[in-house]
Amino acid sequence: MTNTFSVSSINTMRSIFRTLDREVLRDIALVCLTGSIVGVSFGTITVSSGLPLWLPMLLSVVVFAGAAQFVFVGIMASGGNPIAAVVAGLLINTRHVPFGFAVGDILGTGRARLLVGSHLMIDEAVAFALAQRDRQRRRAAYWACGIGLFCCWNLGVALGAFAGTVVTDTDALGLDAAFPAVLLALLLPSLREAATLRAALTGAAIAVAGAPWLPAGLPVLLALAGVAVSLRTTSLRTTPAGSGDAGDGDDAGDGDDAGDGGDGESSAGHGSRVAS
């Protein structure tokens, strides 16, 4: 199975460059370059925060999900509970469930392809794939972005991890801003929707209020209550309005029926007079 997968992977990489336009390949290359830079900051901050050298590299290979890795390390570096860090990372990665439905048909057949393709399922690869006009181009864009980012991300993390053994003050280089900057960049496109904005603001308020009093990591989990509050608010705003409209519609319908009946009676009376 390994030999078959290796041959298939080589053929896939060859077809990628024949299928995609230069513009798409250029955009994928720029995303990979950006990913490697963010990876350097991730590795540097992780090691300079006192975590072991192998941790960022292991996370990048096994998890390969930037947002989840940032959250996990951020909680651990601040002295949080490892269970809370794992749960927070898993909750962030629940977005991969709809991703799987969206791109599942372009991963190919075979258990090895499905496993590797699922592991490479990141936001950028899915976005590039869905932007293509046909299935062949979608498949090529997905694998090109996924494989490229996996290599560049892990290379950047490794370089950053070794740099973290030398750099003692990441704040002086501005690397401390990498955690909130990356998470904010992932969140901003979704804040155009009112419900998402309400959930984000409510969750942020809960996390900020609980941070001075609760163990590290727990405020992040409690911030998920913002989703429930937003859903409840949306339900309260929508349901009464819908019920009221339905009731008005029924009343209007009754009025129309009565009016139709009156017209019918008038017509009948008029017909009787004519007949007389």
Short description:
It is found in: Cell membrane. This protein is an all-alpha fold and 276 residues long.
Helix and strand topology:
Elements: H1 2-19, H2 22-48, H3 54-62, H4 66-77, H5 82-92, H6 96-103, H7 111-119, H8 123-130, H9 135-164, H10 170-173, H11 178-187, H12 194-210, H13 218-222, H14 225-275
Architecture overview:
- The chain is mainly alpha-helical and 276 residues long.
- It folds into 2 domains: 2-192, no CATH class; 193-276.
- The protein contains 14 helices and no strands.
- The chain has helices spanning 2-19, 22-48, 54-62, 66-77, 82-92, 96-103, 111-119, 123-130, 135-164, 170-173, 178-187, 194-210, 218-222, 225-275.
- Helix 2 (22-48) packs parallel to helix 9.
- It is globular, with a radius of gyration of 28 Å.
What general form does the structure show?
globular
The number of helical segments is 14
Report on the biggest sheet: none
* Percentage of residues in DSSP E strands: under 5%
N- to C-terminal distance: 96 Å
- Give the fraction of residues assigned to helices: over 70%
What is the domain total for the residues? 2
What's the order of the H and E elements?
HHHHHHHHHHHHHH
Q: What Rg, in angstroms, do the CA atoms define?
A: 28 Å
- The number of distinct β-strands equals 0
| Secondary structure category | mainly alpha
Mean pLDDT: 77
Contiguous runs where pLDDT drops below 50 for at least 5 residues: 244-276
